[in-house]
Design goal:
Elements lengths: L20 E7 L6 H10 L5 H14 L1 E8 H17 L5 E6 L5
Helix pairs in contact: 1-2
Length: 104
């Protein structure tokens, strides 16, 4: 009887959730051209030409716009790529990454 082993397994509760999402926000400035903003939206954020034009106008009139919602790594990578492209052209374009509101 000393060698008896228990066959009872403990169940662990695993709470699997989708990773948190982050929004990339682009801001208006007086120096970055509208054409450059559209180009960034098409090349980096993979927007269609029409969608890019609409977002660019939203940024122009509202001072900022959400250009995409991604996982953290992708959001940071896209914001960094767009910022680097802007700096190479001498533009002060500003993008930020912020947590997206969770659907309640």
């Amino acid at each position: 009887m000393a060698n008896e082993q228990s066959q009872i397994r403990e169940r662990q509760r695993t709470d699997i959730r989708e990773p948190r999402k982050f929004k990339v926000i682009i801001y208006n400035d007086d120096f970055t051209t509208m054409e450059f903003v559209v180009m960034i939206l098409v090349q980096v954020f993979l927007k269609s030409e029409n969608e890019a034009q609409t977002l660019m106008l939203q940024v122009h009139h509202s001072d900022k716009a959400v250009v995409g919602i991604y996982s953290y790594d992708i959001a940071v990578s896209k914001a960094r790529k767009a910022t680097n492209m802007a700096r190479e052209q001498g533009y002060p374009l500003r993008l930020t990454v912020e947590p997206a509101e969770e659907a309640g």
